[in-house]
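Sharing a chain and its predicted structure for anyone who wants a worked example. Both blocks are below, sequence first, tokens second.
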Amino acid sequence: AAFGKTRSGDLKPQRLRPQRGRPEQPRRPISRVDTSSEDQIFIDVPALVSEELFGVVQTQLQENRQRRRDRPGGGRYLLQGLVVCKRCGYGCYGKPVSRASAKGKIPYAYYRCTGSDAYRFGGQRLCWNQQIRTDILDAAVWEDVRQLLSEPERVRTEYERRLHGPAAGPDREVKHLNKMIANIKKMISRLIDAYGDGLLDKSEFEPRILAARERLAKLEGECRQRLDEAAQESELRLVIGQLEEFARRVSQELQEPDWNTRREVVRALVKKVEIDEREVRIVYRVSPSPFEGGPQQGYLQHCWGRGNDEVVITGWPTIPLAVLNLKIS
């Protein structure tokens, strides 16, 4: 036996998305990590099995692990762990169609909401959201990701459109506002000096000082807003630079990517895919602060769900992008 096999360490990413009802960041940002044998305290205990039997079992377990890695698992889905039901908040899983239901056709699968399975909740369904074909949704999301990587500058265009195209840059406006704030402060100081010297009476001083302070508070608020916009502009340049660098590094693989390459690229860029009754919303891994209040129209693709109902897939730029969290190695 050994004491101190694990210790507290930095938080490690464990899930592609948080569980339903759980925050994205835990209350205690720590993880349990294994320690080295030098840091452990070994305690002698009576042996339960012989060393020979223990060695044989360990060898068999290692063979089982290797055999399991070599054996292909069940269905492989490009968006596994990323698809979320918009109506109930539960995750969606890939459900293949049985051979009997396929009736000899090409086998396919659906992304199905967990809340729509009655057997999971005591015989009562929690959600009636429809399921959607995995192959069609995977192809639509992958095409949306490719367009984002091929034209990173469209992120800037969408950002400026949502800000209604300001005439001057945030930095120039900040300088102008700082100059006006300095003038207002000088005027307030002169008013106070004039009142102290008896050049102004109280009836003249109070309304003028009140108006000057209100004007000062308004200008300071505008200056803080412009500073935030300047910081967001700097973040936006970083976002576009990261996207361009990321696209450059994977450009060759994006021509004819295999399944593993597509999955890694999608997991690096896509935060989650929300499925609603009539719409699919793709949310990218970007800080949403520069993109508050999405546009009314955007890039659309169309899928066909169960019952030949048309489902609209809303991709970027109608979504709040999130590429600031993208780590490029």
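Comments welcome. The radius of gyration is 29 Å.
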